Automatic annotation (TrEMBL):
Ranges for domain Enoyl reductase (ER): 16-334
Quaternary structure and interacting proteins, as annotated: Homotetramer.
Main localization of the protein described in the UniProt heading: cytoplasm
Similarity-based family: Belongs to the zinc-containing alcohol dehydrogenase family. Quinone oxidoreductase subfamily.
Name of the protein: Zinc-type alcohol dehydrogenase-like protein
Subcellular location: Cytoplasm
InterPro entries registered for this protein in UniProt: ADH-like_N, ADH_Zn_typ-1, ER, GroES-like_sf, NAD(P)-bd_dom_sf, Quin_OxRdtase/zeta-crystal_CS, Zinc-ADH_QOR/CCCR
Length: 337
């Protein structure tokens, strides 16, 4: 089967950073689906793994943890899907990625694809939807429902992949006042269309930007990028006993700064369930099915930002380069081999 992989961690400007190769087709385990990959999207985790994880000598490492496709075969213990089902999922970081014609994945972290979306639009959603959902409802423990409880959420990096779906979830399913941060006119417009009540520029001091809009403090913060650079501003902006959730990898984080206000810190990593095969691993299956329902009834929309063409090494290198530049809006998707 066709696949895109790398053998050495290299800068994305190097043609060997990602290569078109041929690999044997994988065999599904008892709880696995064998999926014919129709579309993928690219996430920051792809670039981080490529830059930092050196494959074993002579081994090819396949990236890609967002897939939309069709079930081709099922393992002996599979009960949730059957061949022919259209599915979407983010997979497991402990297994080979989905940048290949065929891919195996545990059924417990797979959802039925939204009926109203094509494969490219669906591929934009799984990883970011899982991350945003778990961050909002499980880590920050926000209640679903439109009742105004006087709570507010500042989303730092609201125009990115996770921010694009988190802004929608928070504005459509909760009573939160949603403040999205974005630094360019086009990304600010994007965040506004996703449902944010207010927009602030995270290239400026955030606490001052909030106060300029009459917002003295917020009760919750989702910091999706550059947390170490913004920490002092976030602590200042948070109300006493507020909650700070993050998904990025700060080089350093002085948590003692949270003590005076009794702020709580919550880390969201959507691979935790699949990595440790937790008892509640199937919650990601249920979550993706719920997101599909919300897409189909018009509550949510795909966060596809750019379509980079067919799935090949050249197009994936372009996608990695754009993500590494920090200028991406929404999700980058590739479709077909």
């Amino acid at each position: 089967m066709k696949a895109i992989a790398y053998y050495h961690s290299l800068p994305i400007s190097d043609a060997a950073a990602l290569q078109d190769i041929e690999l044997p087709a994988p065999e599904p385990g008892p709880r696995d689906l064998l999926v014919e990959v129709r579309a993928i999207s690219v996430n920051p985790v792809d670039t981080k793994v490529r830059q930092n994880v050196q494959p074993e000598a002579g081994a090819a490492k396949v990236l890609g943890w967002d897939v939309a496709g069709v079930v081709k075969a099922v393992g002996s213990d599979v009960s949730l899907f059957q061949p022919g089902d259209k599915v979407y999922y983010a997979g497991s970081i402990a297994r080979a990625g989905g940048n290949s014609e065929l891919h195996v994945v545990d059924e417990r972290i797979v959802g039925h694809m939204p009926k109203r979306l094509g494969f490219a639009e669906a591929a934009a959603l799984p990883l970011t939807a899982i991350t945003a959902w778990e961050l909002l409802f499980e880590r920050l423990q926000i209640a679903e429902g439109q009742q105004d409880l006087g709570q507010s959420l500042l989303i730092v990096g609201a125009a990115g992949g996770v921010g694009s779906i988190l802004t929608q979830l928070a504005s459509q399913l909760t009573g939160l006042t949603v403040i999205g941060s974005a630094s360019r006119p086009q990304t600010q417009d994007w965040v506004r269309t996703l449902g944010a009540d207010r927009i602030v520029d995270h290239s400026q001091p955030l606490a001052a930007a909030l106060k300029a809009q009459g917002i003295e403090q917020v009760t919750h913060v989702a910091s999706l990028t550059q947390t170490d650079q913004h920490l002092d501003q976030l602590v200042e902006a948070l109300a006493p006993q507020g909650k700070l959730a993050l998904i990025d990898d700060p080089k350093q984080l002085d948590v003692t700064k949270l003590k005076r206000k009794s702020l709580s810190l919550h880390w969201e990593f959507m691979y935790t369930r699949s990595l440790f095969e937790t008892a509640d691993m199937i919650e990601q299956h249920k979550l993706l099915n719920r997101v599909a329902e919300l897409i189909d009834n018009g509550t949510l929309k795909t966060t596809l930002g750019e379509h980079f063409g067919t799935i090949n090494a050249a197009n994936l290198r372009r996608a990695h380069a754009l993500l590494e530049s920090g200028a991406a809006k929404g999700k980058i998707v590739l479709e077909g081999f």
